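Troubleshooting log. The previous structure file for this entry was overwritten by mistake, so regenerating from the original sequence record. Sequence copied from the archived sheet and checked twice against the printout by T.R.
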Amino acid sequence: MAFYKKIKMKVNGKWYPKSVLVVTAATTEQVAKRIAAESTVSPADVRAVLTALGSVMGDFMAQGRSVKLDGVGSFYFTAITNKNGVDTEKEVTANLIKGVRVRFLPETRYRGAGKGRVSTRGLSDVDIDWEEWKGEEKEEKKEKGKKEGGGGPVSG
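Regenerated output below.
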């Protein structure tokens, strides 16, 4: 189940649902155990593969390639540059690149046929059930976190 909270945008004064992440991310260990339970591979083998995945993907992307993982999507690098740019093409050099971002495009899935065919981008065919988050607000979380050491949702 995924969670949302109601947010009023300052720009236009309209209300929107905003997704809320529940405190901690799933760990490599949890993912490895889940994959192992759904396959014939041991949790240790899955962990080893997941650990190697990041550096292998980074190597391919550093070669100017994207990495497409079936059922997941594509990953690629983009350059972060000076916002002001330069006046001429001749002035463009690698020195203008200040950092790198990893971009992700979820795999496109197609459902239906003919005129009813629909494409969607998502990590899976799983339907998401949304429920309103009834937990504490950010300000309360910060105050409570100082006293108790954290907890609560993270907006996303």
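The CA atoms of residues 32 and 47 lie 5 Å apart. Archived copy saved in two places this time.
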